[in-house]
Amino acid sequence: MRAALPLLPLLAALGYLLIQQPGLSLYTVVTGSMEPDIPRGSLAVVEAAPPSLGEAGAYRLEAGGRAYVAIHRVVGIEGGRYLFKGDAAEAVETVPAEKVIGRVALVVPYVGYLYMAGLANPLLVALTILLALAPPGRASTLFPLSFGTGVLAYIVPRPRPGGYDGAGPLLADSSALLSLPPHPREAAGEAGRAAAAFIHLAHNARGDERLQHRPGGCASMVRSLTAMALLLALWAALTASARGEGLYVISANYPVRVLVGGAERATPAYVGAGELVCAPELVYLDEGSRIVFMGWEGVGRDPCVRAHGNLTAYYVREYLVHVYSEPPALRRSMWVPEGTLLELDYPEVYEESEGVRWVFQHWSWGEAPFQPSNRIYVAKPLRLEAHYVREFRVLALATHGVRANGSGWYREGAIAVLAAPREVYAGNGTRLVLAEWVTAGSVPAIVLPQSSPGVAVLEVRGPHTVVAIYRVEHLVSATGPQGVIFGGWAGEGEEIRLAAPEHIQLGPDARLRFAGWAGVEGAASPELRIRATGPLRIEALYVRQYLLTVSSPVGAGGAGWYDEGSRAVVVVPENLPANVFVRRRLNGFTGDCGDCRHEGGRLALVMDGPKSVTAVYSHEPDAVNLGILAGAVAAGAALYASGRRRGAEAEGRHRARAPQPRQPGHNYFYHAA
């Protein structure tokens, strides 16, 4: 410490000269979009230089009508535009080069909170940052330097040089990490550069009302003394914790835990000279994200090295990219470095096996989603889909040298239509006709019912081979009221099955009933089997029927379907009780029955059309039941009257037997009975 005191004036003067240089800006981090690299409340130093890929840079943005400054990591540079992304955020922002302020040169965690608490001044800036830069064992050397340069910056008046850009201390976050010199002998040079930078920042802070604390007054004195007391406590703690020389700092560009002598330590870690330090080769951050060890800065790629100076482990973030496709052979899964423009080159047609292939359709997303060759920018874990459709080859063949059409490639599940000549005439009413389609390939094909013998329709489920078989046929036709039941050529001796509907509905109350076949003897069933021994002409015969509807409150018989011109009989009961005292009596019929004359409830009709008949009844009292009811009522009344009379007589006799009370002035005589 005493050895450094003579150098204090020289270093202070050097720092004073360096602060004349513009180009540095000071910001306070107030959000956590770049955590854990830069915690909230950090103090960030931005240098007016273009940021490189992987570095943190500051840029201007506008939101809600207000201007802000954000600090995120550069994940891509495309044609004069920067792609920024927060380490703890998902969104990628495209920023023009003219809005980029510069690169983040240094970040000191939590010092920004002192600005928010009103304890910021040039002394605080110079002293705190230099103490933070000091490796263990060097804090006592750098303390007088930081103290002297801070006092010089505080007391020497100087107008604001313009290094502070006036955008305000508001940041989205910062991802720059403290980069320490690799060897202890370079600490002084690093400290000198940091001192000059922060003397410059201190003067800039004095020229801005949002960051300064002007000297003067009790309040300003209390704040300055408080800041000095805090910094002196920090210096004492650093000096007490670092008792010897030869300690080195182990850091990384991502928060990792290293092995020092077999024990895990979080970075930054302090190790002694010659200690074995091992960095993890892979660190999984979350699902689909990891960092990969690339080597020690200036040392090599071996993850385990001996500490002979400060060491910085360099890691690259990688994201898991899944490429899914319907062909299993084309599916891929790979780890891709962040910011990579991934080139994907897939075949337009992939031959899987004999008669089976896949045809490219489109990608789920990318620069060229409709081309087999696509490019994807990797800024997060991705799942891409290369959509293919499977196609099968279908072969159409035929016997007797006949050419069949329809061969080709079809999509899985598509409907394939195969065609061949339906007939080849041989003369005398005989011809070669297509009899059937037969599957001849290794994968059976299900041929759907076809409307024409010359067409085969099948659903493609694999590579199919279908053969058209020809045979000799005779012309056979069968017709009915609805048209042709069967028309075409039948093979020699082939059994033909004809089926006519048993009933053909013409309307709600009219229909046709199957009556037989014309042209075939003894055929009375709607279903007919006949062998083609020559040309045949068959007709299905039908009889018209009409519906007879009968309405009756007590039920009726005779309703239903009747052949045209036939005789129908309707039967209803003439008299029947409606309840105990009322009876129904048939008055007659109404409806489609002419004069509606009936005999004993029987009505005869000729069915020359649809008919509807209603039985009409009237209600009459039932004399027998009413007489019985009247007799019962009279008998009950007589019994009631007789009972009351006997009761009155019994009461009179009771009163006559009872003795009368004597009254004064009356003489009572008694005589024997």
Give the SSE map.
Layout (H helix, E strand, L loop, with lengths): L7 H11 L5 E6 L13 E5 L8 E8 L2 E13 L2 E5 L6 E5 L3 E9 L3 H5 L5 H12 L5 H17 L14 E2 L15 H20 L10 H25 L5 E6 L4 E4 L2 E4 L2 E4 L3 E3 L3 E5 L2 E8 L7 E3 L4 E15 L6 E6 L3 E5 L3 E5 L2 E8 L9 E5 L4 E17 L9 E4 L3 E5 L3 E5 L2 E10 L7 E2 L6 E5 L4 E17 L2 E9 L3 E5 L3 E5 L2 E9 L8 E5 L4 E16 L8 E4 L3 E5 L3 E3 L4 E10 L10 E5 L4 E11 L1 H35 L16
Parallel strand pairs: 1-8, 9-17, 17-23, 23-30, 30-36, 36-42
Antiparallel strand pairs: 1-2, 2-7, 3-4, 3-7, 4-5, 5-6, 9-12, 10-11, 10-13, 13-16, 14-15, 15-17, 17-18, 19-22, 20-21, 21-23, 23-24, 25-29, 26-27, 27-30, 28-29, 30-31, 32-35, 33-34, 34-36, 36-37, 38-41, 39-40, 40-42
Helix pairs in contact: 1-4, 1-5, 3-4, 3-5, 3-6, 4-5
Shape annotation: flat
N-end to C-end Cα span: 166 Å
In helices, the fraction of residues equals 10-25%
Largest sheet: 21 strands, mixed
The CATH superfamily title of the largest domain: Umud Fragment, subunit A
